[in-house]
Amino acid sequence: MNPDAHTTLPAPWDRLPRLGLMAGGAGLLLSLLGAFAAPGAVFPSYLVAFLFWVNISLGCLCALLLHYLVGGAWGFLIRRPLEAAVMTIPLMALLFLPLLLGLHQLYPWSRPEVVAADHALQHKSAYLNVQFFVVRAAIYFGLWSLLAGLLRWGSGVQDRTKDPRATWRLQAMSAPGLVLTFLAITFAMIDWGMSIEPHWYSTIYGAMLLVGGGLSALAAMIITASSLSRVEPLTVMAKPDPFHDLGNLLLAFTMLWAYMSFSQFLIIWSGNLTEEIPWYLRRSEHGWRWLALLLMVFHFFVPFFLLLFRVNKRVSQNLWRVAALLLLMQWLNDIWLVIPAFPKAGWFTPVFLVAALVGIGGLWVSLFSWLLAQRSLLPQHDPLLEEVLAHQGEHH
After folding, report:
1. What is the C-alpha separation between 271 and 74, in angstroms, rounded?
2. Structure confidence by residue, pLDDT tens digits, 298-342
3. Does residue 237 belong to any structural domain of this protein?
4. Which of 4, 37, 306, 368 is deepest in the core (most CB within 10 A)?
5. How many structural domains is the chain composed of?
C-alpha cells in the first residue's frame, strides 16, 4: 500500500465536514442566544450534549488502547475510525469552556453563598472548589490528548515504515495508558456529572458512565464501519466475523451497563437513606418515570434480545440499526441523569437539548470525518494486521 494514501469517502461522507460545520455553527448559535434569555435551560442542555459526545471520544480512546493490548480482527475493522475519533478530544477540551461560563448555573458548590450556608458542602470544599475543578479538567484533557496524539502519531510512523517496533511501542504504552484513562474518566464523570447534586454520591457512578461511553463508542464505530464497508481497502476486513465480534462486544457492554445501573438502584433503594434516595425520587416524578421505563426496555431488553441472534451481529445492516438505537438511548439516558437536577429549567429545555446535541455533534462529526479521510482505512505495514489477513486467507 501507499504509505501516503488518503481515502476518498463516498457520499454522504464526503460532504460531512462542511455540513457538520454548518449544523454545528447553527446549533451553537441557538444555544448562545438562549444562554442570555434562559441560562437555566441552556447550560444543563449543553452539559447533556457535552457528556454524550465526550464519552464517545473517550470510549474510542479506551477501545483503541484495548485493541493494542488484545489484538483481533474487530479492532482493525474500526481502528482508523477510532484513531480519528480520539483526535476529537482537543476539540472537546475547547467545547468544555462554555461549561466554565455556566459553572454557577450547574454546580451549587461553586457559589460561595450556598457553601457558606451548607455544612456538608463546606466539608467537601477541599475537593469541590472552582480552582481545583479547572485544574483537574486540564489534567484530564492533557492526559487524554497526549495518549490520543501518541496513538495517532505511532500509527502514522507505522504507515511510513516497515519497522514493527512502532507497533510494539504502542502495545507497551497501552496497558498503563488504559489504567490512567480509566481513572481519569471515572473522576471526570464524578466532577462533571455527579457533582451537579453534591449532596448525593455513588461509588459506581463514574464507572457506570465510563461503560456507557464505551457502549456509545462501539455503537458509533459500528455505524461508521458498516457505512464504509464497501470502500477500499476496508472491504478486506468488512467480513461477517469482525462484525460478529463487535456485536458480541456491544452485547457485553449493554449487559454491563444494565448491571451497573440496576446495582446502583438496588443498593440505594434498599438502603433508603435520606441523602441518597431523593436522587431516584426526582427521576421518578413528573414524567421522568416514563423515560426510565423507556430506557429499561430499549436500552437493555430490546438490544439484548436482538443481539442474541447471530444474524443480527454478522450482518452489518442489522447490527448498525441496533447500534443506532443504543446511541439514541444513551443520549436519553444522559438527559435522565442530568435534567431532573434542574426542575426550573423550563418547558423549552427540549429545544436547547436538540440544539446543543446538534451544535457539539456537528463540529465533532465534521472533524472526525475530515480526519478519517486523511489516511487509508486500514493500517499499513502493521505485523498484527498481516497475521489477521493471513488467517482470513487474504493478502495484504
Report:
1. 42
2. 999 999 999 999 999 999 999 999 999 999 999 999 999 999 999
3. yes
4. 368
5. 1
